[in-house]
Amino acid sequence: MLELYILLIFMIIAAVVAVEVKDLLSSVIAVGAVGLGLCITFLVLKAPDVAITQLVVEILALIILIRATLKKDLPFSTTGRWFLNTLITLVFVAAFLSVAVYALRDLPPFGEPLMRVAKTYLKEGLSETGAANLVGSVILDYRAYDTLGEATVLFTAVIGVLTLVRKVGRKKEAAVAREESDE
Amino acid sequence: MSREHEQGMSVIVKTITRLTVGLILLYGIYILVHGHISPGGGFPGGIIIALSFIHLMLAYGKDAALKKLPRYVTSFLEGFGALMFLAIALLGFSGGYFFLNFISKGEPFKLFSAGTILLSNLAISLKVGAGLFAIFVALILFRFDDEGEEE
Fold first, then answer.
1. Host domain of residue B51
2. What ipTM does this complex have?
3. Where are the domains of chain A?
């Protein structure tokens, strides 16, 4: 449990930094630190699927946010240190591949899933929930919290669409052009 | 020809729609309320119910469908479904924890069984169906508005 508290304190500090710091780019990087801390927290809490989702979404959101906060393009140099760059890339590829080979040994063999949780659902599902459709008993009873999250995502999507195509508060094209010419 | 026949598609499409739209709505309700017994549930049921109204709108024009299901009813149902699902989750605290199945389970394979699962399906179908219909109506009306302004 100790590592969980360390992660929580780290995330709280990073969140406070993200709110308080003046520089926008530093704030975005602090938000990224919160997200990656949350990812490790999910991993500690034994939810690797959620951790993978969090990692992917976090990196994507961080790239978009950094791209949005930077005003001009960063110089991207391809000349010069090509030997060092290639060497670093190869070293990282080799490191990740060896770690992956080591980690994939622990997976169950192909076609023979462990079914630790699913076995319980199949055995106890009918008597515990009374639903003959086991899919229904999983998504609305055992995993109803996931479904609440999905419903929230859908609700947010509807609000987003209705906000984008709304009529109230939308400027006419002529008015926008006039304001731009004034500036 | 009456005013009603000027909007929408041809007479053939309208006649077929008049015959099928009720069946589609009924099928959606069937999928929805039998979600805990047979394959189906709130998500597909709500989508099929919304599709029956979209069918009506495509065949008869937007005014006929919006008279059956006005926009304020859609937005009310959307919010009501979300709050109902959350209320079911929170009522679980009466027995101990979040999303507890607090209603008696009943006899399996009967329509009124499985406790909160039937109610949750209802809430989700309201939310999903109203949400899909609201997005469709918003996109349709947005395009109509743009065309109206250009003319």
1. 3-150
2. 0.77
3. 1-71
